[in-house]
Specification:
With 375 residues, this protein is α/β, with parallel strands linked by helices. Helix content is 38%, strand content 14%.
């Protein structure tokens, strides 16, 4: 018997596609919500065509990564009969999530105002692109236009995007947070509401300390490779056989680092005695550290440093990262008979995330969902 999730009894009508919206609805599904994924007949979610790679049954790996715990119904939102079915699904839901261009949902009567007029307790979430205008909302554009690429890459190299659609991921997380907050408000008052989140605002929020550096001190961040603008050493350093990561967050840790390296005098050098001094004198500090690190390979240094509580580690590939997760006692994979997906990182003592359904085939639940609406 599956333990009821925290959102058991909540129904979500998911009109979104690609990553931000589907990731948000998958999270809600993991927490127990019944998620109905409304897709275009014939093609479905854009990501169904985003490959290779493909799974053994021909589904896109990209699509499979964001769509478990959902039921799929194929509806043509240009067809009056299918729009009526979509409206019925939305009005039976607690939450509607969409990421169409502005005005699309209003033209077919599926926007918040139209639906809330009939169901005031409905929560609607609209995911927009670059602000609330009509600029297309792809993650790559948000990383570029939102400043994230300008601080990613080597100092003397070109701007780089992050190696995953991280703005979409963060937007999906904010969407899920917003929905949970709106459900809490509805529990207290009975009122639904409209939630709006966009990729650009999410990118600016995610700039965190770099945004604060600009807002509070007028400092415009620049690319620094793997270095941190305000902490040192907090970067990749080179041992005898190659680089690894050291993340020293305070002066005590730096003194311990120097002791382990056999260079205690570095910690009392006026150029390195405080974090601020180390940031100012980063190049000579790294040169001195790497001179000592050349005496052994990275694995040896990591073992020695871990024993003294210094945060450090190898730069792993994805397969190595999954192996590491298992080594440290995590269970990183949610498995279905025909596909593995990455596990939800949340752990609950009473209402754990559950993996009830694999990502659905396009229109897999057409008959079932249409019967519910007709009933």
């Amino acid at each position: 018997m599956v333990t009821p999730g925290a959102l058991d009894g909540i129904r979500v009508a998911d009109f979104s596609r690609v990553l931000a919206g589907p990731l948000a609805t998958m999270i809600l599904g993991d927490l127990g919500a019944d998620v109905i994924k409304i897709e275009r007949p014939g093609t479905g979610d854009d990501t169904r065509a985003w490959g290779p790679p493909w799974s053994t049954d021909g589904e896109s790996s990209y699509y499979l990564g964001a769509n478990r715990n959902k039921r799929s119904v194929a509806l043509d939102l240009k067809d009056a009969d299918d729009i009526a079915v979509a409206r019925a699904i939305a009005l039976r839901a607690d939450v509607v999530i969409e990421n169409f261009r502005p005005g699309v949902m209003a033209r077919i009567g599926l926007d918040h105002d139209s639906l809330a007029a009939e169901r005031p307790s409905l929560i609607t979430c609209r995911i927009a692109g670059i602000g609330r205008g009509d600029v297309a909302g792809y993650d790559f554009l948000a990383q570029a236009m939102g400043g994230l690429m300008s601080i990613t890459g080597e100092a003397d190299g070109e701007p780089h995007k992050i190696g995953v659609a991280l703005v979409d991921v963060m937007t999906g997380l904010h969407t899920a947070i917003g929905v949970l907050a709106a459900l809490r408000h509805r529990d207290r008052t009975g009122e639904g509401q409209l939630i709006e989140v966009d990729l650009l605002s999410t990118t600016l929020f995610a700039l965190a300390n770099q945004a604060s550096n600009w807002l509070t001190a007028g400092v415009v961040a620049e690319r620094m490779g793997n270095r941190h603008p305000s902490i040192a050493p907090y970067e990749t350093v080179r041992a005898a056989d190659g680089p690894f990561v050291i993340a020293v967050g305070n002066d005590d840790q730096f003194r311990t680092l120097c002791d382990v390296l056999g260079e205690p005098a570095l910690a009392s050098d006026e150029r390195f005695v405080t974090n601020a001094a180390r940031v100012t004198n980063r190049d000579p500090m790294v040169e001195a550290l790497e001179g000592a690190l050349a005496g052994a390979d990275a694995a040896t240094w990591i073992e020695r440093l871990h024993a003294k509580g210094i945060p450090c580690g190898m730069v792993n590939q994805v397969d190595q990262a999954f192996a590491l997760a298992r080594e440290v006692g995590l269970d990183p994979v949610a498995s279905f008979p025909d596909v593995d997906t990455v596990a939800n990182p949340l752990s609950f003592s009473r209402t754990p995330a559950t993996y009830r359904m694999p990502p659905p085939h396009l229109g897999e639940h057409d008959d079932e969902i249409r019967a519910e609406v007709d009933g």
